[in-house]
Amino acid sequence: MADSGEAEILFERRGALGLVTLNRPRALNALTLAMLTAMQAQLDAWAGDAAVTRVVLRGRGGRAFCAGGDIRQIHALATAGDHAGVDAFWRAEYGLDASVKRFAKPVISLIEGLVMGGGNGISVHGSHRVSSETYSFAMPEVGIGLFPDVGMTYVLPRLPGLTGTYLALTGARIGPGDAHAVGLATHHAPAGDFDALVEALAEGAAVDAVLADHARPVPEPGVLVAERARIDACFAADTVGQILARLDADGSAFAAETAALMRTRSPTSLTLVREQMRRGATLSFPQAMLTEYRMVSALMRGPDFFEGVRAAVIDKDGAPAWNPATLDGVEPGTIAAAFAPGPAPEPRFDP
């Protein structure tokens, strides 16, 4: 339940506006299956309501817009043997992301604090992403034995140069300056203006005009822009091992830190993600979402996701025992199988 005893996700109609508020601040507004299902139903209703001309997404609490899907819930379902429940979660999350992508009306995300994993799935595919001064983007799934999902198979390979591949293989965080530089955010405004933004949008004024009225200069870019040439050179290598070799040979502090970070990640995830980024560049959005469904279904049958969640959020020892423990131990057949159709009827992500 929500921290306040209210629902985990709140919906409100204000004039021309449909307002969605993620309401689990102590859990950094992580998305549960119930939240995903409720938001899908509400978006479907607003899609057919001519009086609602735009939708705004917010997260309560200030610390996070949304830190992603509730991996504790997924872990609990799986360890209880509820594999149908796990499958229902992924189908609901990916289906909602696809609905945001094709939603015919503006979807404006007001992003304060962390936006990770599934938080990017419900925001980055919308028409407008407004960063605040505390905005912090990451797709850190390689650190829990997963991969950047929620449509990142489509989004990340289309970022400038190899910046998307860098973000996917490291899970590194970036701030608003870098996010604007690569197109992950579209507008910038102080979080203190978000209430006023909502009210102005509710009055029905043109979305772009309202956002322009509250716009502030975007902060200076950070590491992603400063190290762009080095990222493009190192992450163009064909394999993860070759990327690490280029980073090791580079000699810069950035390269050393990046290589050290990658070496803490799941070898299986790293190998899978390198192939994901290669394939994603030529996939349509529905094809990318189906690819992710196949990948996540395969990883739910392996050990690393559950070990990664244990180390990160259950026991919190920060010491996952990856299996296999090295890149050389990852079987090519395991990677190929993750992109192949599974035994169950597959969902569709096109209209």
UniProtKB/TrEMBL annotation:
Q: Does the keyword Metal-binding apply?
A: no
Catalytic activity, reaction form: 3-hydroxy-2-methylpropanoyl-CoA + H2O = 3-hydroxy-2-methylpropanoate + CoA + H(+)
Alphabetically sorted, this entry's keywords are: Hydrolase, Lyase
Q: Where is the Enoyl-CoA hydratase/isomerase domain?
A: 18-339
Q: State which Enzyme Commission number(s) the record gives.
A: 3.1.2.4
Query: What highest taxon heads this organism's lineage?
Result: Bacteria
Pfam families, sorted = ECH_2
According to UniProt, the name of this protein is: 3-hydroxyisobutyryl-CoA hydrolase
Which molecular function GO terms apply here?
enoyl-CoA hydratase activity
